[in-house]
Amino acid sequence: QVQLQESGPGLVKPSETLSLTCAVSGGSVTSVNYSWNWIRQSPGKGLEWIGCIYDSGRTTYNPSLKSRVTISVDTPNNQFSLRLRSVTAADTALYYCARNTLFLAMGASDSWGQGTQVTVSS
Amino acid sequence: EIVMTQSPATLSVSPGERASLSCRASQSVKNNLAWYQQKAGQAPRLLIYGASTRATGIPARFSGSGSETEFTLTISSLQSEDFAVYYCQQYKNWPPMYTFGQGTKLEIK
User: Which CA distances in Å does A4 have to A27, B59, B73?
Assistant: First the structure.
């Protein structure tokens, strides 16, 4: 049973960079069977897919965020990370990491972390 | 971007009754449609993928139907634990650009 756990600062200043990590247990971030995703949720925008990374290291991002986002993987520590640059109050949200099982449904997230709240404020 | 529209925004149903939730895509997503359940303070839980396939451990009272642009999630006999918010999500695009509906809140009547 895979488990995902987000971690990172809960408060980020405007114009700075939001950095979050998702630790994975019970599964490997190097498996060819999965993609590793970041999704956020806010009252204003609802659920918004941010992007994902595959075992090869290839990434795909939401076009609306692509210019500011980087997702990377840390294989030795079996975790993956999100960096979102130049944040504004609109980036305030509950951030989730999630796993997609590619041979079942590439875009459906079957395991989620519990989420971490990030507030952008000075 | 494919826009997902769910209706109604809120659905009031009595326990034991059937609930039907709708999701419409702004263009065809074929059967690349998932449904999630979210309870307060929890992450979404995958219920259905491929429009009609139940995820692991999901009770048989949950069923999904539809294709192309019109989809329905049906809960055949509502249990107390089923009252929650439900989201649909499309994952047709390649390269990926997954989008969610705004949710339907299922409340006790």
Answer: 9, 24, 27
B34 and A114 in contact by Cβ < 8 A?
A: no
For residue B13, the model assigns a pLDDT of 96
| pLDDT of amino acid A17 | 98
Q: What is the mean pLDDT of chain B?
A: 95
- Nearest-CA neighbor of A93 among A119, A115, A122, A57? A119
CA–CA dist B22, B102 (Å, integer): 12
With an 8 Å Cβ cutoff, the interface of chain B facing chain A consists of 1, 32, 34, 42-46, 49-50, 53, 55-56, 87, 89-92, 95-103
